[in-house]
Amino acid sequence: MIGKIIGAFVGDKLAKQTSGVGGATGAALGVVATSLIARLSLPSMLAILAGGYAAKRLSERADTAPNRATTP
User: 4, 6, 5, 24: which is closest to 16 by C-alpha?
Assistant: First the structure.
């Protein structure tokens, strides 16, 4: 029970920093995330973590990539 309350609190705080997600939606996502984490095995958690890290790196690389304009 306390884990769901903490998850809702953290989700609410993260939702305030994210555009397009309201406080109540963030709290609900926090509760869902804590219950999913409790049911996942260690290898699947590590796979999700690695996938999130890879997606973040690709996103940052796309944002900082120089525009390669072709010269005539």
Answer: 24
